[in-house]
């Protein structure tokens, strides 16, 4: 994902965000066919869930790299066995010349090792020879269903502090966003509290309501899906008969992107890449 300067007009901002959107893929049986629809030059994020495990993430990351894309694997703290496992993950980053990874606590009910969350994992990971240029962390504008909001807030700032101490640039990518006003309030409050890392806005790709609920509940985005179910009446008003249109969130957020430090888009495709790529092409033509 580019770190080029943000344009000065809202339309240009929206176009840059859409053009440089990062596609999230899930290690499922249909993923090979979906990779073919990812636009050339795109950055691809690879999920990690208890259902599939870390090795599936690494395998798909290697496959995506072999096809010429930039790949950004998700490393789940709660699926990491021990410090030796951390070192093996760092070695994977180095041997595959990765530029970025994205760290998540993960939805595993119990950690398989000593890492209950990202802070402890990150502390050990930063002591390795990982060779990365940037490390991404999670952010929760709508809160986390299982963790107190104050704890989530402190962890966000603790992760930023660890990255700064190690001299490693970072970014924060958010859970799926549906409420523009809530997102803006959260971002403004975190900025006022001293959080300075660039933000990536998490949005669903083009997907119908049924698939959003069934796949999201099954694969790796538990906190976001709990929010979706709790607020389904409001959220589903954003859906058209042909599916969800990410532009309904991206357009208003583009107006505040410069002020709030929104650098990019993280698109939850649910492996519905063909439709999302078609939407991207249509939006870029419209915004040209």
TrEMBL record:
Pfam families: MTHFR
Listed cofactors: FAD
Entry keyword annotation includes Transferase: no
InterPro entries (alphabetical): FAD-linked_oxidoreductase-like, Mehydrof_redctse-like
Keywords linked to the UniProt accession: FAD, Flavoprotein, Oxidoreductase
GO molecular function: methylenetetrahydrofolate reductase [NAD(P)H] activity
Annotated metabolic or biological route of this protein: One-carbon metabolism; tetrahydrofolate interconversion
The keyword DNA-binding belongs to this UniProt entry's keyword annotation: no
GO terms of biological process kind: methionine metabolic process; tetrahydrofolate interconversion
Matches recorded under SUPFAM superfamilies: FAD-linked oxidoreductase (SSF51730)
Name of the protein this chain belongs to: Unannotated protein
Organism: freshwater metagenome
